[in-house]
Design goal:
The chain has 486 residues and is α+β, with helices and mostly antiparallel strands. It is globular, with a radius of gyration of 23 Å. It binds flavin-adenine dinucleotide (FAD).
């Protein structure tokens, strides 16, 4: 996969996708596999924003049952199985324990009913060829068993724990990238580090977008019969700039942080339900990922980050509900923050807001014919969202396209080495390689020798000066500093 800037500047496309997170990547994959002529631009690196900074779960969303969002849970559980089928190398079963304390029979009965419904709604979870991917239904572990399996749960008032299963991505960044690699193999013209600006408008019809290649500052136009905004938490802000008027569909942005610490559990993930929300303790690459918070965010999405207060408050909350965790600041290995792009339901309640996605036709809502936005949603449901988006685009274009096959076609399995990341996966910066193509930077700052070796290999391939190489290493530090220290 090579940066297709020449093609982007010179051809006319059926659809131009703005944003290379998982939403844009899934739409590019689906549309190109159906025979559409696809362009995609990403202003930073692929899956470098929300699509990297989440809980990495491919899950049904047990807690949405509380809001009776049965449709969303069923859709998510079906999509969970599909990701397990098309990307078994990156999506794996994850067993969860939900401990119960304090002897409430009502709490136990409510959770048992919820988990039974979860099992019923995932009736097809065994319909997978690989027996290792088939997920069992839920069960109950006595207090003794739960303590034995996960000593961290031990407290005098432990009643026991429910065991249930969901799935986890070992690398959301690579999963989204593989969707793009598949799209590229089916003819899509794709480039990272290309920022979309003003929309090209003629007689109320959107005919593409002006863009800027930030690697060399060249500006050019991309011409397309339809344009899809898949800009995640930037979607409404992008549109305001692109057409110079207030967006009709506003997003509610919710910040969530995650913190990586040394392994806290033996084999299970934990879902800890509290009176003030829930948190996850997730085994990931031999460490534990703690997530997440949920607070309304009204600043510029570019400025989202983690501060010391976020970590202190989150750890106090976890220590209160899981006293054996004994979390202290010294245990922190890595942290990150993401912004949930939620459909604004007017309530201002980010925790209670639905995680459903919405496809906006701006031809109807804003008299911008040919322009669509895909907003909200979950990683888990992004493939299905893409299917719905492409159905709509095909209808709009009035063309005879092939049927959607993304639920069955396997994703191309790749392993990154540094050279192939640059040659075949568009890695252009040290951060691209360290944080996303290989992920070696996500377990804490890599040793200086490693960064030296990787950056020298990149300098040789990409013709960096010594000054550029040193700057690339220094700029990685932003991932390991809280905002207070910046
Ligand atoms: C804390 C947290 C936890 C979550 N946990 C889970 C989970 O466990 N499971 C799950 O299913 N979902 C989870 N989600 C939701 C999931 O991560 C998101 O729904 C999904 O990643 C959204 O992807 P996206 O492509 O729409 O947005 P993004 O990944 O943000 O992609 C949008 C892209 O658009 C680009 N862009 C913006 N402006 C422009 C422009 N002008 N030109 C070109 N490109 C532009 C951005 O650089 C960005 O890369 C979580 C989200 C958060 C924040």
């Amino acid at each position: 996969m090579r940066r297709a800037t020449d093609r982007l500047a010179n051809e006319t496309f059926d659809v131009l996708i703005v944003g290379g997170g998982v939403t844009g990547a899934c739409v590019a994959r689906d549309a190109s596999r159906r025979g559409l002529k696809v362009a995609l631009v990403e202003r930073g690196d692929f899956a470098g924003a929300t699509s990297a900074h989440n809980s990495k779960l491919i899950h049904g969303g047990l807690r949405y049952l509380r809001n009776f969002e049965l449709g969303l849970v069923r859709e998510s559980l079906r999509e969970r199985r599909i990701w397990q089928r098309i990307a078994p190398h990156l999506v794996h079963p994850l067993p969860f324990l939900v401990p119960l304390y304090g002897g409430s029979t009502k709490a136990r009965a409510t959770l048992a009913a919820g988990l039974t419904l979860y099992d019923v709604l995932s009736f097809d979870r065994g319909w997978l060829d690989d027996p290792r991917q088939r997920l069992p239904g839920h069960s109950w572990l006595s207090a003794t068993k739960a303590r034995e399996r996960e000593p961290i749960l031990d407290q005098p008032n432990l009643d026991g724990a429910f065991l249930y299963y969901d799935a986890q991505m070992s690398s959301p960044e690579r999963l989204a990238l593989e969707c793009l690699i598949d799209a590229d193999a089916h003819g899509a013209a794709i480039a990272n580090y290309v920022e979309a600006g003003r929309l090209l408008l003629r007689d109320g019809k959107v005919e593409g977008c002006s863009v800027r290649d930030t690697t060399g500052n060249a500006a050019f136009d991309i011409r397309a019969r339809t344009t899809l905004v898949a800009a995640g938490p930037w979607a409404d802000i992008f549109l305001e700039h692109a057409v110079n008027r207030p967006a009709s569909h506003k997003l509610l942005r919710s910040k969530g942080i995650h913190v990586l610490v040394p392994a806290m559990t033996r084999e299970f993930a934990l879902t800890m339900a509290t009176a003030h929300g829930h948190f996850f303790v997730l085994p990931w690459r031999g460490h534990t990922l703690l997530g997440t918070t949920d607070t309304a965010f009204t600043g510029n999405p570019d400025s989202v980050g983690v501060n010391e207060r976020d970590i202190a408050d989150f750890f106090a909350f976890i220590n209160q509900h899981l006293p054996n965790a004994k979390l202290t600041r010294e245990k922190v290995e890595y942290f990150y923050a993401g912004l949930r792009p939620l459909v604004d339901d007017g309530s201002g309640d980010t925790y209670g807001a639905s995680r459903r996605a919405e496809l906006v036709d701006h031809g109807k809502d804003d008299r911008l014919d040919g322009l669509f936005s895909a907003i909200g949603g979950k990683w888990t449901t992004s493939r299905h969202l893409a299917q719905l988006v492409v159905d709509r685009l095909v209808g709009k274009l009035g063309i005879d396209a092939r049927k959607c096959d993304t639920a069955f076609a396997l994703l191309p399995e790749r392993t990154a080495a540094v050279l192939s990341a640059m040659r075949d996966e568009m890695a252009l910066t040290l951060e691209d390689v360290v944080m996303r193509r290989t992920g070696i930077g996500q377990l804490g700052r890599p040793a200086p020798q490693i960064l030296d070796d990787v950056s020298r290999t990149m300098a040789g391939e990409l013709g960096w000066s010594e000054e550029r190489r040193v700057t690339e290493i220094a700029s990685l530090d932003r991932w390991y500093r809280t905002q207070d220290a910046a």
